[in-house]
Amino acid sequence: MTSVDVVNVVFTVTDDHGRFVKDLTQNQFRILDNNKPPKEITGFEAQTGLPLRVGLLVDASNSIRDRFKFEQQSAIEFVQQSLHPEVDKAMVLSFDEIYEVVQDFTNDLDKLSAGIRKISPGGSTAMWDAVYYACREKLMKQQNPDPVRRVIILVSDGNDTQSHVYRKEAIDMAQRSETIIYTISTSMGSGGEGDHNLKLLAESTGGEAFFPLKLTEVADAFYRIQRELRSQYSIAYKPDDFVPNGQYRTISIKTVPHDLRVRAKKGYYARKQ
Fold it and tell me: Are residues 101 and 55 in contact, defined by beta-carbon separation less than 8 angstroms?
């Protein structure tokens, strides 16, 4: 948000086949904020060029050891191909039972790649702690004079065995920091609670969860995220009946007249003055 009563939403539109739809205009969207249309639309942009602030969170617990090298290489390729060093920055954080920033925010692609290469698996998993810390202490505290898109890409099997914070606390912090989370499962189709966690995290923040069934599909998921980050819309508006009281407000965005799929965050916390 640029001011307390202006809401910024970045969102993605796809058709029935999952293809990105990038040529819609402002009047083809209907927005409801707390079930009411906005008082005023203050900005709209297709294929938004907002600078990225990306947190790459890599699960380094024992449970993903046998697939780790491939995931590491896919993450390096994503960094090298997706980030525009003149405007974007990223950080790399690994986690097992503790989290560690192996490379802080930088636009140096070689440093980011070296940070990913440093990670070696071992230990149990504190995923919620890692998400909470990345959102609260890193993405929220980045000093950005202009609007940016805060993004986390989480590579994990989604099973948490060690965190001190709860799942709800991690999701709340992601929403408060206005961070979109994309998750790439490393469970290779085994499903269960871990996949449910990853899906919930992505859906709650307007991101997407990917569930590769074989190793080559990990690279495909990174490529899909890369394309999506350059195919999004952004809209800014002033809500009706806005009270800066810290309460959660819901957001609904739909297309008219044709019913395309819109993926956006489900809501936000009305920041106090």
Answer: no
Strands 248-255 and 29-33 turn out to be: antiparallel
d(Cα 68, Cα 60) in Å, to the nearest integer? 8
Cβ burial of 233 (10 Å; 0-12, 13-18, 19+) is buried
Which residue segments constitute the domains of the chain, with CATH numbers given? 7-47+231-269 (no CATH), 52-229 (3.40.50.410)
Cα distances from 41 to residues 35, 180, 237, in angstroms, run 16, 22, 4
Computed over its alpha carbons, how large is the radius of gyration of the chain? 18
Tens digits of residue pLDDT in 61-80: 887 777 788 899 999 999 99
**Dihedral angle at the C-alpha atoms of 148, 176, 97, 91, nearest 10 degrees?**
10
Predicted structure pTM score: 0.91
Helix pair 68-82, 216-229: axis angle to 10 deg: 20
Per the listing, tokens 């004079």 go with 145
